Amino acid sequence: MSVIRTGSEPMTARSPLRMRFWLSLWGMIWAVAGTVAFVLIGHPGWAAACATLWLITVVDMVVVVRHIRQGPHFQPGRDVPPYQPPSDR
To answer: Is it the case that residue 89 has pLDDT exceeding 80?
Structure first.
């Protein structure tokens, strides 16, 4: 499936990376709290699940921060015509 640029994309579109960063931070806080709580009450399985979730949120946060630091990428302007769909032979 190919995506065709229509030329009508919003000029003021914003990246959801900052929102994803804050959601990852929120998830990381809860995963750490869950890990500590389950270790303290003696549920190692649930503690391991929370620790795994903690690791996933840390990896996601690293990826998000990397993309934010890369900065914006080239987006075609209004003078660039829409892409033509590939021809099926």
So the answer is: no
